[in-house]
Design a protein that fits this description.
By secondary structure, the chain is of the alpha/beta class. It is elongated.
């Protein structure tokens, strides 16, 4: 039997079953053994099909463990009240209670073990009967796994019996594996499956310590009234689960824990049927009947008859107290393979600020969350969302990204940005950022944005998990939280925390035309083809612009004769009379080259609030022909610039020593190969 991991109390950061500290080596052993069973499918299934075989049986077994324990406890309860009841009567009564009162049920008396141990000629029939015997809420999960079709494939490839044998005794109930532990196992398996099948790089599963940090930065309190939590890209439900577990962890009394269960409702939407099914199973096991999680694309309108379900929690009907999410990075939403046309139906409402480029829809998720904020008069809303670096600065003035940033900053919703360490996520090693937004800023936060550089707040994982080589433990999260909470106070100083005015992120883009000079600081000239119509009117416009000598080299045709001539103009010349005299014979103009002063067209990016003219004179230091007097306004956030620290280059002596060391190692390797 696969060993079942337990919490390592000695390693716990907090003395709580909801703690983030897990006995990862044991969990990894469990995950590794499950993964081995997936690898046994090689040759019979494609790599992208592995998760369709393995994940559903894990979910079914975990549900089965819950149901078996429920039956045992209910039977003991009934026998305690009716000690003389017969076994047959007890079984019948418990089955009736299960159908009518349990969170989910199965009308058969089968289990995975019974299915496996009975006649193997009936294995498929019995297994299908068992699957079909579940209540409607479990059947919905099975359907979204598309598991009935997979059963046929397992039978065809002689894998049904080995799979049932592997998982029929595995202890996966919540009494053996907490929701937090099971979430870790699910997402580690999903990570491995996605790597195996080469799925989109944007599918980044969120480490639990990062989710906990987000929840703590949102400052969600143990409620005394109803509060709602929402995730528009909820995956397997990790964000929602950890948020609620955090509140249960903080509850100090039985009454407070009851308030969490009573008053906290979680809402989510997920595009992947597999992730949706896992999330729904987790909610069933927790018996969280208030949770509302839907399958579909949260970025497009929901239309009842559409093949792709859309947002079933529209802002016209739903708003939320707290929102948190880790939307996919860099995932295409436009083009022929995207849903651009559907998303644009919300262009005048939800996405009125602008729409990002079609190859990265991350900012669409943020706009979706902002659209669902409660009015400040009703308490307002707070948001925590994970981004990569693109939403910070992608897009020039007037682009969708810049306009979205402008909209957010000018409405004073952005509260803080936390720069996280790299190699923190399973499927990517890049730096990531937590954006914190709210529409009910306290007075000390208004008009300001805090940036926290937490890139060094990590320790190495004892063992890497894909690209995840770093982790944030309790002390690192506490470090971030203290700066966020205390950094607004006057006099607080920390080189890793800075506060900016929202205007500090604004800039003007100004188009400038100025004269070019040569190496001797003399006016530079250029010769090029004259593309315009060669007329007195055109020449007049050129002189008005250049106000200097102009030389034209022309190839003219007089009847059957061609001739090269030079036509020179000065600023004081009467252009019209000179032109008419020069071309009195009306030759045919075959080609024209001209020599004129060289000028440069450039865009200057000027910090908001600076005098534009003074900036141009100072920075260009050349005679300016003209500049755009109605400049564009853009916004960008550049954390790396604000926290830049000079790192002196490695001394040449050290580099040379390293070079010789590597060369000697290479010589040894080559010598070994030659033997």
């Amino acid at each position: 039997m696969i060993p079942v991991p337990q919490l390592n109390d000695a390693a716990n950061e907090r003395n709580s079953p909801m703690s983030l500290a897990l006995n990862k080596p044991k969990l990894d052993n469990l995950t590794g053994d499950i993964w081995k069973s997936a690898e046994r499918l090689r040759g019979k299934f494609k790599s992208y099909e592995y998760q369709g075989v393995i994940l559903p049986i894990i979910v079914i077994r975990r549900l089965e463990c819950v149901l078996i324990k429920w039956r045992e406890e209910k039977a003991a309860e009934v026998r305690g009240k009716r000690p003389n009841i017969t076994d047959e009567e007890l079984t019948k009564l418990v089955k009736g209670l299960e159908t009518n009162t349990a969170p989910f049920s199965n009308k058969t008396d089968l289990t995975l073990q019974k299915v496996y141990e009975e006649d193997h000629t009936l294995l498929e029939d019995n297994f299908r009967a068992y699957i079909n015997g579940f209540s409607k809420n479990v059947d919905d999960i099975v359907e979204h796994f598309n598991y009935r079709a997979t059963i046929g494939q397992m039978v065809k490839n002689n894998r049904l019996a080995p799979i049932l044998n592997q998982y029929k005794d595995l202890e996966l109930g919540p009494d053996k594996l907490s929701p937090l532990e099971m979430g870790y196992v699910y997402e580690e398996l999903l990570r491995r499956f996605s790597e195996q099948s080469g799925e989109e790089a944007g599918e980044h599963f969120t480490p639990r310590e990062v989710i906990r940090l987000m929840v703590e930065l949102l400052e969600i309190q143990v409620p005394e009234r109803h509060i709602s939590i929402y995730d528009p890209a909820c995956g397997t439900g990790g964000m929602l689960s950890v948020a609620k577990e955090h509140l249960l962890d903080r509850a100090e009394t039985t009454e407070q824990r009851a308030n969490v269960e009573k008053f906290v409702t979680v809402h989510g939407q997920e595009l992947s049927p597999t992730n949706y099914a896992i999330c729904q199973a987790d909610l069933l096991i927790k018996n969280d009947r208030q949770a509302k999680v839907f399958l579909g694309n949260s970025l497009i309108p929901h239309e009842a008859h559409s093949k792709e379900p859309g947002d079933q929690l529209p802002e016209a009907k739903f708003s939320f107290d707290f929102m948190l999410s880790n939307p996919p990075f860099g995932v295409t939403w436009g083009g022929k393979d995207g849903y651009e046309n559907e998303a644009k139906k919300l262009q005048k409402t939800r996405y009125k600020a602008g729409m990002p480029r079609s190859n990265d829809g991350a900012l669409l998720f943020l706009q979706t969350m902002l659209a669902k904020m409660k009015e400040p008069a009703k308490g307002g809303s707070r948001i925590a969302i994970i981004f990569n670096g693109s939403p910070l600065s992608n897009g020039d003035c007037g682009s969708g990204e810049s306009e979205i940033r402008r909209w957010i900053l000018e409405n004073d919703w952005l509260d803080a940005i936390v720069m996280l360490p790299d190699q923190l996520f399973y499927n990517t090693g890049i730096f990531t950022y937590i954006w914190l937004l709210r529409n009910e800023k306290p007075a000390s936060h208004q008009g300001r944005v805090m940036l926290i550089d937490a890139r060094q707040q990590f320790e190495k994982e004892p063992k890497s998990f894909g690209n995840k080589r770093n982790r944030m433990v309790e002390s690192h999260r506490a470090w971030v939280e203290s700066r966020y909470r205390n950094g607004w106070e006057p006099g607080f100083a920390d080189e890793n925390m800075k506060i900016f005015r929202r205007e500090d992120f604004a800039f003007h883009k100004v188009s400038v035309v100025f004269w070019q000079f040569d190496a001797n600081d003399q006016p530079a000239f250029i010769t090029e083809t004259y593309e315009k119509a060669f007329s007195a009117a055109s020449l007049k416009k050129e002189m008005e612009f250049y106000e200097s000598d102009l030389t034209f080299n022309l190839r003219l045709k007089f009847g059957q004769t061609e001739k090269n001539v030079t036509f020179a103009l000065g600023p004081k010349d009467n252009i019209k009379s000179r032109y008419e005299k020069f071309f009195a014979d009306k030759p045919e103009i075959l080609a024209v080259e001209w020599t004129h002063r060289h000028y440069v067209k450039d865009d200057e990016y000027i910090p908001f609030g600076e005098d534009i003219e003074e900036f141009l004179v100072r920075e260009i230091a050349r005679p300016i022909i003209r500049w755009q007097d109605s400049p564009q306004l853009g916004y960008e956030i550049l954390p790396n610039r604000y926290f830049y620290r000079y790192q002196p280059p490695t001394p040449a002596k050290e580099l040379l020593a390293e070079f010789w060391k590597l060369e000697k190692e290479a010589e040894k390797l080559l010598a070994g190969l030659a033997q």
